[in-house]
Amino acid sequence: MLYRASLLLISLLSADSFATTLYGTVELTHLSPTQAESTWLREKQVVPRYPMKLAQKGIAGCGIFKVNVDAKGTTKRITLVNSVPKKVIEKPAAEVIKEWDWTLVEGKLPANEEKLIRLDFCLGASSEEEANQRCKQQASIACE
Protein backbone atom coordinates (compact mmCIF):
# COMPACT_ATOMS: atom_id res chain seq x y z
CA MET A 1 0.00 0.00 0.00
CA LEU A 2 2.83 2.39 0.84
CA TYR A 3 4.47 1.49 -2.48
CA ARG A 4 1.32 2.40 -4.43
CA ALA A 5 0.96 5.70 -2.57
CA SER A 6 4.61 6.55 -3.25
CA LEU A 7 4.25 5.63 -6.91
CA LEU A 8 1.14 7.82 -7.22
CA LEU A 9 2.91 10.75 -5.54
CA ILE A 10 5.94 10.43 -7.85
CA SER A 11 3.65 10.25 -10.89
CA LEU A 12 1.78 13.40 -9.85
CA LEU A 13 4.97 15.32 -9.17
CA SER A 14 6.47 14.21 -12.50
CA ALA A 15 3.38 15.23 -14.44
CA ASP A 16 3.39 18.62 -12.73
CA SER A 17 6.98 19.28 -13.75
CA PHE A 18 6.00 18.89 -17.44
CA ALA A 19 3.02 21.23 -17.15
CA THR A 20 3.36 24.44 -19.10
CA THR A 21 2.84 27.72 -17.33
CA LEU A 22 0.92 30.25 -19.36
CA TYR A 23 1.13 33.86 -18.34
CA GLY A 24 -1.72 36.22 -18.90
CA THR A 25 -2.20 39.92 -18.48
CA VAL A 26 -4.77 42.62 -19.11
CA GLU A 27 -4.16 45.98 -20.78
CA LEU A 28 -6.62 48.81 -20.03
CA THR A 29 -6.92 51.72 -22.45
CA HIS A 30 -9.05 54.81 -21.75
CA LEU A 31 -10.49 55.70 -25.17
CA SER A 32 -12.75 58.56 -24.08
CA PRO A 33 -12.55 60.59 -22.09
CA THR A 34 -8.81 60.16 -21.75
CA GLN A 35 -7.55 59.47 -18.26
CA ALA A 36 -6.38 63.11 -18.03
CA GLU A 37 -9.85 64.43 -19.00
CA SER A 38 -11.88 62.11 -16.74
CA THR A 39 -14.14 63.19 -13.91
CA TRP A 40 -14.02 59.73 -12.34
CA LEU A 41 -10.98 57.43 -12.11
CA ARG A 42 -10.69 53.91 -10.81
CA GLU A 43 -9.87 54.09 -7.12
CA LYS A 44 -7.05 51.56 -7.40
CA GLN A 45 -5.00 52.08 -10.55
CA VAL A 46 -3.82 48.47 -10.78
CA VAL A 47 -3.98 46.06 -13.70
CA PRO A 48 -7.43 44.45 -13.80
CA ARG A 49 -7.58 40.73 -13.02
CA TYR A 50 -7.64 38.28 -15.92
CA PRO A 51 -11.11 36.72 -15.73
CA MET A 52 -10.79 33.14 -14.49
CA LYS A 53 -13.48 31.94 -16.92
CA LEU A 54 -11.44 33.17 -19.88
CA ALA A 55 -8.13 31.85 -18.55
CA GLN A 56 -9.56 28.38 -17.90
CA LYS A 57 -10.80 28.20 -21.49
CA GLY A 58 -7.55 29.66 -22.89
CA ILE A 59 -9.38 32.62 -24.41
CA ALA A 60 -7.54 35.82 -25.31
CA GLY A 61 -8.98 38.83 -27.07
CA CYS A 62 -10.23 42.36 -26.62
CA GLY A 63 -13.39 44.21 -25.75
CA ILE A 64 -14.54 47.79 -26.00
CA PHE A 65 -17.05 48.82 -23.35
CA LYS A 66 -19.21 51.82 -22.65
CA VAL A 67 -19.28 52.37 -18.88
CA ASN A 68 -21.74 54.81 -17.31
CA VAL A 69 -20.70 56.25 -13.94
CA ASP A 70 -23.26 58.36 -12.08
CA ALA A 71 -22.67 61.58 -10.11
CA LYS A 72 -22.08 59.50 -6.96
CA GLY A 73 -19.30 57.46 -8.57
CA THR A 74 -21.36 54.29 -8.99
CA THR A 75 -21.19 52.14 -12.12
CA LYS A 76 -24.71 52.18 -13.54
CA ARG A 77 -24.37 50.40 -16.87
CA ILE A 78 -21.76 48.43 -18.78
CA THR A 79 -22.42 47.92 -22.49
CA LEU A 80 -20.32 45.90 -24.90
CA VAL A 81 -19.54 47.95 -28.02
CA ASN A 82 -17.36 45.38 -29.77
CA SER A 83 -15.22 42.36 -28.92
CA VAL A 84 -12.98 39.72 -30.41
CA PRO A 85 -14.00 36.96 -30.13
CA LYS A 86 -17.61 38.07 -30.43
CA LYS A 87 -19.65 38.03 -27.20
CA VAL A 88 -17.32 35.59 -25.35
CA ILE A 89 -15.55 38.38 -23.47
CA GLU A 90 -18.64 40.38 -22.51
CA LYS A 91 -19.77 38.66 -19.30
CA PRO A 92 -16.36 37.95 -17.68
CA ALA A 93 -15.10 41.47 -18.51
CA ALA A 94 -18.28 43.09 -17.20
CA GLU A 95 -17.79 41.20 -13.92
CA VAL A 96 -14.28 42.70 -13.65
CA ILE A 97 -15.53 46.22 -14.40
CA LYS A 98 -18.39 45.94 -11.86
CA GLU A 99 -15.81 45.46 -9.10
CA TRP A 100 -14.17 48.83 -9.75
CA ASP A 101 -14.65 51.66 -7.30
CA TRP A 102 -14.57 55.19 -8.72
CA THR A 103 -13.07 58.25 -7.10
CA LEU A 104 -13.70 61.87 -8.06
CA VAL A 105 -10.72 63.62 -9.64
CA GLU A 106 -9.50 66.47 -7.45
CA GLY A 107 -10.88 69.81 -8.61
CA LYS A 108 -13.77 68.27 -10.60
CA LEU A 109 -17.46 68.54 -9.75
CA PRO A 110 -19.45 65.29 -9.42
CA ALA A 111 -21.27 64.54 -12.66
CA ASN A 112 -22.47 61.61 -14.72
CA GLU A 113 -19.76 60.36 -17.04
CA GLU A 114 -19.86 57.99 -19.98
CA LYS A 115 -16.54 56.25 -20.49
CA LEU A 116 -15.34 54.24 -23.45
CA ILE A 117 -12.67 51.77 -22.37
CA ARG A 118 -10.83 48.93 -24.02
CA LEU A 119 -9.68 45.79 -22.24
CA ASP A 120 -7.17 43.48 -23.91
CA PHE A 121 -6.83 39.98 -22.49
CA CYS A 122 -3.54 38.36 -23.49
CA LEU A 123 -2.50 34.74 -22.82
CA GLY A 124 0.22 32.34 -23.85
CA ALA A 125 3.51 33.99 -23.07
CA SER A 126 6.39 32.23 -21.34
CA SER A 127 6.98 35.06 -18.82
CA GLU A 128 5.14 38.00 -17.31
CA GLU A 129 7.36 40.41 -19.21
CA GLU A 130 6.57 38.71 -22.53
CA ALA A 131 2.83 38.71 -21.71
CA ASN A 132 2.97 42.47 -21.03
CA GLN A 133 4.81 43.12 -24.32
CA ARG A 134 2.32 41.01 -26.28
CA CYS A 135 -0.59 42.82 -24.68
CA LYS A 136 0.81 46.26 -25.54
CA GLN A 137 1.16 45.12 -29.17
CA GLN A 138 -2.35 43.68 -29.21
CA ALA A 139 -3.78 46.91 -27.76
CA SER A 140 -2.31 48.85 -30.69
CA ILE A 141 -4.40 47.01 -33.31
CA ALA A 142 -8.13 47.38 -33.96
CA CYS A 143 -10.54 45.42 -31.78
CA GLU A 144 -13.03 44.45 -34.48
UniProtKB/TrEMBL annotation:
The keyword Transmembrane helix does not apply. It comes from the Bacteria. Residues 1-19 form the signal peptide. Pfam families: TonB_C (PF03544). Residues 35-130 form the TonB C-terminal domain. The keyword Lipid biosynthesis does not apply. This is Energy transducer TonB. It comes from Alteromonas portus. The lineage of its organism: Bacteria, Pseudomonadati, Pseudomonadota, Gammaproteobacteria, Alteromonadales.
